[in-house]
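Problem: given the chain below (232 residues), write out its structure.
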Amino acid sequence: MAYQLYYWTGLQGRGEFVRLCLEDAAAPYVDVAREQGDDAIMPFLDGEHAGALPFAPPFLKSGRLVIAQVANILHYLGPRHGLVPEGEAAALYAHQLELTITDFVAEVHDSHHPVSSSEYYEDQRDEAKRRAKDFRENRVPKFLGYFEKAIDRGGGRFPLRQHSYVDLSLFQVMAGLDYAFPKAMARQKVPLLRDLAKRVADRPNVAAYLASERRIPFNTNGIFRHYPELDG
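Solution.
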């Protein structure tokens, strides 16, 4: 039975972290809104569907289960598709790393929408310049340094000593930051993260996905947005 992934059309967004996991695992899934439109999401958000109530996309329907929040979805998919090492300690550490990625992604978003998510970027450009400067100079090195250390402690190739869904999410973070902040990223010295991202991109299922029409290009509607004035 195919999974059903619910996420807004036209952008990668947070749904891309789930897509990468499903694509890498060659797991059958339907990207529902892309086939039926964004209106297909609304019955779940309005509480008109059985199962857990999601706050917002992405959420995944697996049989009767409705699972929301990226880290929670990946925590569910990981052991079912060999994308997390066996054992409680490894599963919890993977979940911890993914939650930290979630924190980082929220800060990426706030670098261009620091005042309000409901207002246009152009209405908060000055505040975004201030926020992006701190993000580039302090937050990016802090988060990337942490993940670089995690890979080093994992043996130099993976944070968890074998391929996992965390690697896929770190690839997406690196790809997004390279798009949004190319100048700032050129200054980051994170060779282990760079190597990990390249190896993820070269995985056969991931490479096929990245070359397909299913991979929506980065754009200025998603989380990772390139505004030259924010890149410093």
